[in-house]
Write a structure and sequence with these properties.
Helix 3 packs across helix 4 and helix 11 runs antiparallel to helix 14. It is built from 14 helices and no strands. The chain is an all-alpha fold. The two termini are 23 Å apart.
């Protein structure tokens, strides 16, 4: 697929902002309802263990639904899947809102509705991962991804606050807001004029479902950068999740309440929002290799510092320092992942990478709890610091030199375009995205203004 197809008729900027609005609205509603669903269950008499099981079942349901949904999304069904999934999720959240407003919903009903919503959201996300390349020209991937990161971070900060304000007014209000956010997302996706479907060669008969799924896994296995991305992001995501839960366990163990946990979330979310705002400039001015290596090593002393504090505001500042650097790393790595992945594999590759991170996120809280129970919070944090140090060494020794542009070759292939391969003998050695914004320019098709 060419950039011309992605940005035909000068509609790229409009389509990108519709895509951004759909994703940000979805995230805002999900964060608002996700905070209060456990409160609703606890208020109806469910035990904390039951609430935890529900959360785990929903998460596993989403992880299982994502890979097959990505195959369907790469079969030309992206727009229909996004719209349909958003409407199904809206129906599930609307059902919870109605049940909470007019009666006492049963645990089975709430579990079923939450699982439907999680599976529908996984299908939406699988299709959405392949959509960015159809609404943004390659040269603008870093800026677009930074704006998507900012939207996610903003929802992470505003969503829980919105849910916390609405739930005391009426327990069904956050779920109604979530349902409406899904409807709004469906409207935005439907209004995108670009062709969201992947560019595929005409075939007499499509490959079997399992063959298409394995094609995405083979591409990751054969692409050196994606192998690095899979290992590094899954490892970092799991360790940071374990650190967060370890901090929560430590705060609770020292007698602090939910306000302290809220302080940690607020500081981390605010730092992430600032980091997302600064990410495009950092990605343009600092070599990609330096960003990844610096962020990797920054996490090590943060993890070690978490082992020796008991104050919520210190936890918040330390975790916030990580949140400050993560958006720039996401811009660098996500931009390149999009560049090296063919259009017809975008959903499958993106879903496979996110599924690996999701599995790490599901396992990390349990691992953090077991380690804290047996060894205490300090050894747990130090063990996470050791894991992060190993990943930082891996990024320094492997990723910087082989996959990302360094100080020694800042723009050695920019003149050949964003899909250039500076070393024909390597598998997609990275070419930096050329910076065309050195002076004010008119809005280009496909550029997220």
């Amino acid at each position: 697929m060419t950039a011309a197809r992605r940005t035909s008729h000068g509609r790229g900027s409009r389509d990108f902002w519709l895509y951004w609005s759909a994703g940000t609205s979805d995230a805002l509603g999900t964060q608002a309802s996700g905070l209060v669903l456990p409160l609703l269950l606890l208020g109806l008499g469910s035990s904390p263990g039951t609430v935890g099981v529900l959360a785990s079942v929903s998460a596993v349901g989403g992880l299982l639904a994502g890979p097959p949904a990505s195959v369907l999304a790469d079969r030309r069904w992206r727009r229909g899947m996004m719209v349909g999934s958003a409407l199904v999720a809206a129906g599930a959240m609307g059902a919870i809102a109605a049940a909470a407003a007019f009666g006492r919903p049963s645990l089975l009903f709430l579990c079923s509705a939450a699982l439907v919503e999680r599976v529908a959201t996984a299908c939406y996300e699988a299709a959405a991962r392949g959509t960015l390349v159809t609404v943004v020209a390659p040269v603008h991937y870093p800026r677009a991804i930074a704006r998507l990161e900012a939207g996610e971070q903003g929802a992470l900060v505003a969503g829980p606050a919105l849910g916390g304000v609405l739930f005391p007014l009426a327990r069904w209000l956050p779920f109604l807001v979530d349902a409406l956010s899904y409807v709004f997302s469906a409207i935005c996706v439907r209004a995108i004029r670009a062709d969201l479907n992947p560019h595929r060669k005409s075939e007499d008969s499509p490959p079997r479902f399992t063959e298409e799924f394995r094609a995405g896994l083979r591409f990751i296995r054969n692409e050196s950068f994606l192998r690095f991305l899979l290992l590094w992001t899954a490892g970092v995501n799991g360790l940071l999740t374990a650190l967060y839960y370890g901090a929560v366990f430590s705060i609770h163990g020292h007698g602090s309440g939910t306000a302290s946990t809220g302080l940690v979330l607020a500081l981390s979310g605010a730092a992430g929002l600032v980091g997302a705002a600064a990410a495009p400039r950092l990605a343009r001015r600092i070599p990609a290799a330096r960003i990844v290596i610096a962020a990797s090593w920054t996490m090590v002393p943060v993890a070690a510092g978490l082992a020796f504090t008991t104050h919520a505001w210190v936890y918040g500042l330390l975790l916030g320092s990580v949140s400050l650097t993560v958006p720039a790393v996401a811009v660098v790595l996500h931009s390149r992942a999009v560049l090296v992945t063919p259009d017809q594999l975008q959903s499958r590759v993106g879903t496979a990478l996110d599924t690996a991170c999701g599995v790490a996120s599901v396992l990390a809280p349990a691992a953090a709890g077991l380690l804290t129970d047996h060894f205490g919070p300090t050894p747990t944090a130090l063990l996470c610091a050791l894991g992060l140090a190993l990943l930082a060494a891996y990024a320094t020794a492997t990723a910087a030199g082989r996959f990302l542009p360094s100080d020694r070759d800042p723009d050695h292939s920019a003149d050949r375009g964003p899909f250039a391969d500076p070393d024909p003998g390597s598998d997609h050695a990275f070419a930096p995205v050329p910076d065309t914004r050195s002076r004010p320019q008119p809005l280009e098709a496909g550029e997220p203004s």
